[in-house]
Amino acid sequence: MIIKSIKLTNFRNHTSYFLNCKDRTTIIHGENGCGKTSVLEAIYILTRGKSFRATDQEILKRGKEFYRAEMELENGSKTIATYDGKIKSFTVLDKKTRRLPKKQKYPVILFIPSDLNLISHSPGSRRKYFDQIFSQFNESYNDALLKYDKALKQRNELLKKENLSPSDLFSWNVLLAKYGSILSNLRAEYIKEINSNFTKKYQSIMGNKDKVDIIYNTEILEKSEAKYLTILEQNYQKDIFIGHTTFGIHRDDYLFRLNQKLANGSASRGETRSIILALKFIEADLIYQKTNTKPLVLLDDVFSELDEQRRKHLVNNFKENQIIITSVENI
Ligand SMILES: Nc1ncnc2c1ncn2[C@@H]1O[C@H](COP(=O)(O)OP(=O)(O)O)[C@@H](O)[C@H]1O
Ligand SMILES: [Mg+2]
Questions:
Q1: Which ligand is nearest to the CA of 14?
Q2: Are 171 and 229 in contact (CB under 8 A)?
Q3: Does residue 13 have its Cβ closer than 6 Å to ligand 1?
Q4: pLDDT tens per residue, range 182-218
Q5: How far apart are the first and last CA of the chain?
Q6: What domains lie within the chain, and their CATH numbers?
Q7: 10: alpha, beta or left, given left = phi > 0 and alpha = psi -120 to 50?
């Protein structure tokens, strides 16, 4: 897939905007607040189905009644996303749907400035980060996650009710155990795959012999559904007392290590940047291995955060991908 152009109407600050894309590298250059990230946001919606940073209501240009984002591909086909203040819909080949059809989704490597703080951010932001990646590898990961989150919300609501009996929680426990163990297994598998190349990529950026890896930090050590269910049931009193579900994959974390020491607190700024860069390269490799597609690469303002050598690595690594870059500086 090669994007030929993007057209936006009432999308954030853009009343009417048009971008011609190059086959290889397109640079969106402009000062802060001119709407660069918004263009990447539109592309992300058109390829992944929803924004990486906001709701449609926040995206809709203030005072306007609808937004529209249109993407034309090199082969002439179009994807259109519209939002009328209540409902978002996608139009592909004259067919209108509420969600972007799976067949129209396209893998994306998104690199935004906050990714550079991934190592020191909250466990929740790391979970969100990896969920986004794993969903691109595997649509059923995403389906399981949506079902898990829904069941978790229901169980947590019930836990706040008076006169609750253990049997009231049963059906939610079953769903959490089912999807929780699926997700836990997939997380462990994908982190193992990332780790198998992580050090090599990192060393190629740094030119040294340091080792990096990610520890999948989870309480779900025995990954059987039955065991998961038993623990949820045993936690009944404790969960009522605390007021939410205390066991499960929603408490997982991913810990980055440099030479077997936690990178958070020990890695320098340069090392941290290289760790994230290596992670992005591996994401692209794994997506290619699993989907046989070279992902689209969206780089938001990260060029200015990287030194000359890391910029070179970035460009070299993605030389066969279509890249769209935003930048305040002239690059
Ligand atoms: N719903 C909206 N309606 C109108 N303007 C908006 C809306 N949402 C954001 N903006 C404005 O759009 C501008 C573009 O934001 P952004 O794409 O993040 O810019 P950049 O990445 O170029 O710094 C910001 O000045 C912001 O205040
Ligand atoms: Mg921006």
A1: 1
A2: no
A3: yes
A4: 999 999 999 999 999 999 999 999 999 999 999 999 9
A5: 25
A6: 3-106 (3.40.50.300), 118-291 (1.20.1050.90)
A7: left
